[in-house]
Amino acid sequence: MDQGQGALTQLRAYLAQRDLPANSRLPAERELCDILGVSRGELRKALAIMEENRELWRHVGKGTFIGSRPVEEFSNIAAIAELTNPREVMQARLLIEPQIAREAALNATAGDVAEMRLCMKMSREAKTWRQYENSDNALHRAVAEATHNTVLVALFDTLNAVRRTVVWGRLRSKVDRPPSDHHSFAEHEALVRAIEERDMEAAGQTMRRHLSHVQGNLLASSQAAE
Amino acid sequence: MDQGQGALTQLRAYLAQRDLPANSRLPAERELCDILGVSRGELRKALAIMEENRELWRHVGKGTFIGSRPVEEFSNIAAIAELTNPREVMQARLLIEPQIAREAALNATAGDVAEMRLCMKMSREAKTWRQYENSDNALHRAVAEATHNTVLVALFDTLNAVRRTVVWGRLRSKVDRPPSDHHSFAEHEALVRAIEERDMEAAGQTMRRHLSHVQGNLLASSQAAE
DNA sequence: TGCCTAACCAATCATATATTGGTTAAATCC
DNA sequence: GGATTTAACCAATATATGATTGGTTAGGCA
């Protein structure tokens, strides 16, 4: 009975002496047995207790590590893109991006707005669809960056990556041509102005209206393809 | 001059004959040289043109592939967690999750609601903080799943993964204790009821209020730590 | 000058070997 | 007899090695 707790005590003493930083790996179980002078079974009991206590985590083939187990990532872009479709992506954009625009209106600096205007200028001067799409992407990302919230930017990037993968997979318009419809230009202008004037409500509304138009165009083109 | 275009023509003919599906790999450059009977330089010119045209993409060590280059992922959970903090994460939750709740109210099935009620039951019966947190997580994820939108679920998972990494990194409450404050229980109940009644406005508002309380608690505990 | 050829480079893949936590069962010890 | 040690084995992972790939450069050649 004392033995069972003894291994844990020895292990704790060993770790306290080293004072290892988080995520650092400690020796393999077989080595620790020799170091601490305990049997592997007792050592594993102690390790199990500390793992249950979230003081360390173990994995076959990897080893034993200080701290809490890292989370598994279901954020694989390609995997998401496989499971979804343009409709879901546009719906997600309609829910997320207006909220980002509202937050951008609150936090945007003069530099952020200048960046947005530069993107708009480039999109107006675009000679090919590819250039236009790049500028459009850059503008939307500039809005996300204007929130000055790393998590929101990361979420936007994820959503954007999924969008590009899915859309490109479906309709492959090889013909590069300048955009004929200029409805986006006016909407972008209104969006940036709302952000500049710190009008959260207008920023959100404008973004929502803009994405609704994009959604409508996407729907129309898919119908035309049928 | 005819030679330069000739390699491209031959390559196009070769690809048209095979009619390879997207993302499929085509032979290595050195093999293609023999197959098409052109020099590697000419072949690479043709490949460069088609790559510029987004008809294929190449990468050292991998090969040459049909279609457009897959997007790079900035969705590394650990990387995001390194750059952010609990405040940004809570802010992002306050912007995203109410929108998800609204959408859930529109699309939830009876099975979805039953799943939510099960999560609530488990959270009420939780004996430790860990159990409570797991049930709470499961409930919020059930709401996301009720949107029946793969992209929204994936974004929620990403946000949730970042949240757990960041929060766990900061405050490590080793002491497992049952939750003393029951304010979340009533809020969860109201949230699920709003979703069940398809009241988008109430669902969004309830989720926002709930997260505001969570944010308040997090702020209070961090102040207490100082 | 323009093209071909060959060689080389760094990134990546493919394969084999070693290591690690997890498990089981016989041996051993009070 | 029950608990513990010990050894062997397993699947997952890491590590090391060699082959392959796109990218690049330099010399030969027409």
Automatic annotation (TrEMBL), chains A, B:
Q: Which Gene3D superfamilies match?
A: GntR ligand-binding domain-like, Winged helix-like DNA-binding domain superfamily/Winged helix DNA-binding domain
HTH gntR-type domain: which residues?
1-69
Q: Which one of the record's GO molecular function terms can you name? A: DNA binding
Q: Which UniProt keywords apply?
A: DNA-binding, Transcription, Transcription regulation
InterPro entries xrefs: GntR_C, TF_FadR/GntR_C, Tscrpt_reg_HTH_GntR, WH-like_DNA-bd_sf, WH_DNA-bd_sf
Q: Which PANTHER family match?
A: TRANSCRIPTIONAL REGULATOR, GNTR FAMILY (PTHR43537), UXU OPERON TRANSCRIPTIONAL REGULATOR (PTHR43537:SF5)
**Name this protein carries in UniProt:** FadR family transcriptional regulator
Species whose genome carries this gene: Pelagibius litoralis
Taxonomic lineage: Bacteria, Pseudomonadati, Pseudomonadota, Alphaproteobacteria, Rhodospirillales
